[in-house]
Description:
The protein has about 150 residues and is an alpha+beta fold. The protein has helices at about 1-5, 65-75, 85-90; strands at about 10-20, 20-30, 35-40, 120-125, 130-135, 140-145, 150. The protein has one domain. It contains three helices and seven strands, in the order αβββααββββ. It has a four-stranded antiparallel β-sheet with strand order 4-5-6-7. A three-stranded antiparallel β-sheet has the order 1-2-3, with no helix packed on it.
Amino acid sequence: xxxxxxxxxxxxxxxxxxxxxxxxxxxxxxxxxxxxxxxxxxxxxxxxxxxxxxxxxxxxxxxxxxxxxxxxxxxxxxxxxxxxxxxxxxxxxxxxxxxxxxxxxxxxxxxxxxxxxxxxxxxxxxxxxxxxxxxxxxxxxxxxxxxxxxxxx
Length: 153
């Protein structure tokens, strides 16, 4: 793969999906390692390495990252909502933990890590749709379908 054959720096996570392909791949990589997990069920991923292959690597896991990962996993274990987009937004907008919520907007928070925006992607048989939310519980700022054409109304 491209990620396996080129030099890497830093540490990143991304999820790969393609219209018409039912595979969903969770990819973590650092300069030293590459891990790819095929997802067969819903998962959450905050800002640190969690795969079996990379999660044991030396890393700094901030308090907010660890708390958000555990809270997201707990929310996934609760009764699933029938609508995946609502379920995803419910997790992304969760603020149950007053100190380190998943959705963070306090300018005086303890580690200066606030939510800038949240995105939900819907990958179908022949298209990819995505919505970007910059404020919780409000309509999407951008709702994109059929490439990069914004949807109005």
